[in-house]
Amino acid sequence: MAPEAILLVGGKGTRLRPLTVRTPKPMVPAAGVPFLTHQLARARAAGVEHVVLATSYLAEVFEPYFGDGSALGLHLEYVTEEEPLGTGGAIRNVASRLRSGPDDPVLVFNGDILTGLDIEALVGTHRSSGADVSLHLTRVEDPRAFGLVPTDGTGRVTAFLEKPQTPEEIVTDQINAGAYVFRRSVIDAIPGGRPVSVERETFPELLGAGAHLQGMVDSTYWLDLGTPHAFVRGSADLVLGRAPSPAVPGRRGDRLVLPTARVAPGAKLTGGTVVCEGAIVGEDARIDGSTVLAGAVVEPGAVICDSLVGAGARIGARTVLSGVVVGDGAVVGEDNELRDGARVWCDAVLPAGAVRFSSDQ
């Protein structure tokens, strides 16, 4: 029997605002479709047929879009948390919808990770090692922002170390990559009805009790889409073919222009740029590595790099954006220059020439 999966999609995405003011993070488009579509399509390609979505923030938007999942060849169910329960609490909260027996494997995915993980290999590792929980681990150059997961020579997890600060604490470059296989009975043993963190509570307690936690290092593509800069990069990498997904709606390449978008012949789109439904890009605009969401307008001569332009937003002529997020419905007037993490809130209006960078800064 193919394993079933739980997708944790309840987070508020506060680090991604203003992208997530009106849209939950998993529904923000990446490479032209909601990011969650890529995760569901990859699970289906790995043989998963039944997925339970653990929703919370803006929960009402998921089901109208995905329905019962049949368009993706899946059977989807939705469980909404009334109060945020944390990762472990969310997993426990959907346990009643699972069909697996006590010893069967259940996949769990965080809803904000873009990865090329070999899902079938993770399940295979879980089965062959006889583990209670198996974790996808990836290696990173600077592990200080993550929880470290050292393993022994057989891949068995030996400790969980929260974000290390001193060089002595960095005993491995392996981090928890946010995808797991649980033995079903382990899920049922998580305390119900209260917030639980699998990272800080469930996994360390299991380890302390002598349970078998297995790590599988898979160093294919991996990106935490928690920040606007990372989200924009992830979308571009999907279009460029660096990150794998069966759900990209078009050919891989420098640009992805969805069917109802209009791009002027003299505009230049590069670096995995996406122009979504109904968006308009004017003459001589240059857009690199960026996402222009549905119905947005980029006026002639604008230059946009590594940025995201929200749904229905308008970018004025000759305006320069670099590393910027413009919220849904916002207007950035002509001849502005915004850089390096600037965020324009939903429906904000920035007059023409309001923000400029001088060359001697």
From TrEMBL:
Residues in Mannose-1-phosphate guanyltransferase C-terminal domain copies: 253-356
Transmembrane segments: none
Domain Nucleotidyl transferase per the UniProt entry, residue ranges: 5-237
Family indicated by similarity: Belongs to the transferase hexapeptide repeat family.
Name of this chain's protein: Nucleotide phosphorylase
